[in-house]
Design a protein that fits this description.
Elements lengths: L1 E6 L2 E6 L3 H9 L3 E5 L3 H10 L6 E5 L2 H10 L4 E5 L7 H9 L2 H4 L5 E5 L6 H7 L4 E4 L4 H12 L6
Helix pairs in contact: 3-4
Length: about 160
């Protein structure tokens, strides 16, 4: 890419081969594994994915999450604590056993509608990195994603 600008009366041309690569990286959305058993919540995550700056892969149970996390690299995992086939805390521990999750230091955020005292501590003790209570706002979710992936949380 070549750019031209004026410095006083002199025209300066700058050529860069790295501009295209850098521009693409600025626009890449982080890949996020979402584990959510509720069909309405899964649809909601899909609908808001661009607004919260993520590229989601959405699964509905722990077994599917373990399969996905074993095959793909994710910048972040967001998981419901209450799932049909497994307790969310046990699922997080199973995910932490996977080389792609533990080796990459993939953060796991717990999400629950039944926020009770002590939940956050139990989540952190089971290998999760953060906690988000439902209902949450788009800004809260976008901020969590940005905090843990380094993606920009702005508009």
């Amino acid at each position: 890419m070549t750019a031209a600008f004026r410095r006083g009366r002199q025209e300066v041309h700058v050529e860069s081969t790295h501009t295209k690569k850098a521009t693409l990286k600025l626009h890449e959305l982080p890949a996020v594994l979402i584990i959510e058993d509720d069909p309405l919540q899964r649809k909601l995550y899909k609908l808001i994915s661009n607004q919260v700056k993520m590229k989601p892969m959405i699964v509905d149970d722990c077994a599917s999450a373990i399969a996905a996390a074993g095959e793909h690299d994710f910048a972040l995992i967001i998981m419901d604590l209450q799932m049909p086939d497994s307790d969310g805390l046990l699922c997080a521990q199973s995910l932490r056993q996977l080389p792609r999750v533990s080796g990459n230091g993939t953060p796991i955020i717990a999400v629950t509608a039944h926020a009770m005292q002590g939940d956050r501590e139990r989540c952190l003790a089971s290998g999760m990195d953060d906690y988000l209570s439902k209902p949450f706002t788009l800004l809260e979710l976008r901020t969590k994603i940005a905090d843990w992936t380094g993606a920009r949380a702005g508009s």
